[in-house]
Specification:
Blueprint (H helix, E strand, L loop, with lengths): L1 H13 L3 H22 L7 H33 L4 H4 L4 H31 L4 H28 L2 H18 L12 H14 L7 H31 L8
């Protein structure tokens, strides 16, 4: 049943611009950053530092890109019967999870493309390190997807896009000293901090510090994500299709 729901959601977006965006943006970013590493001041950075910056900027862009994409998907659902396809599903929870799963599957493919392409061009790390950083980026982005799907459906596309802009600014601020003790508790900063922390930890003398950082993040991220996940499903089961301002 869940597989059919996911397949139906993927079919909805198959002939739209959304798959193209998931393919074009990561390629452009990977190629642009690789060119910057060859022809700008980035070529003087240590390889680990350049890779950290790559993941930091990629992760910081996640909220604003997700905000735009999910807001447009929500607009499509609203235009196709004012969300009735979702609301009339036999299982609202499965319909919601199918929508979220289809969107996140696109994110998995896009980030894999961005990391794989840049990793293949730039090198300097083993395949295992690139793959681990990719997994951390994906794990760090789940909460942002859930938040924006919730906001886009409940409040509309403009609040979702506006929230994405604010979140990206917060994520960038969190990469400075201002976020050193706070980023573990702010979902929009996780994708900007977690993969980069893992990459740069390779140069730390005390490798146990990486385990401490991952544990701090995990102990805060797991309950926060669980609350968002459960709360969004409970809300969707009671939602009547109305949006703020209707």
């Amino acid at each position: 049943m869940m597989g059919r729901v996911l397949k139906a959601e993927l079919y909805k977006i198959k002939h739209t611009w959304i798959p193209w965006i998931h393919g074009i943006l990561p390629v452009l970013y990977a190629l642009a950053f690789y060119a910057a590493c060859q022809f700008t001041g980035l070529k003087h950075f240590m390889p680990d530092e350049a890779i950290q910056i790559y993941f930091t900027l990629l992760g910081a862009a996640v909220p604003i890109v997700v905000g735009v994409l999910i807001s447009k998907v929500a607009d499509m659902e609203s235009g196709a019967g004012h969300f009735q396809l979702l609301l009339s599903a036999p299982s609202r929870a499965k319909a919601y999870l199918g929508k979220a799963g289809a969107l996140f599957l696109g994110f998995i493919l896009a980030t894999s493309l961005a990391v794989g392409l840049f990793g293949g061009l730039f090198g300097h790390q083993t395949l295992a390190v690139w793959f681990a950083a990719l997994l951390l980026l994906l794990a760090a982005s789940v909460a942002v997807y859930l938040i924006h799907l919730w906001v886009a459906l409940a409040l509309g596309s403009v609040p979702s896009m506006g929230l994405g802009v604010v979140e990206t600014l917060i994520a960038l601020l969190a990469t400075t000293g201002l976020g050193d003790k706070l980023w573990y508790f702010i979902p929009c900063t996780w994708s900007a901090r977690l993969p980069g922390t893992y990459i740069i930890a390779g140069s730390w003398q005390n490798q146990s510090l990486l385990a401490v950082e991952l544990a701090k993040w995990g102990f805060s991220a797991l309950p926060i994500t669980a609350v968002i996940f459960i709360g969004s499903i409970i809300w969707f089961n009671r939602w009547d299709g109305g949006q703020w301002g209707d």
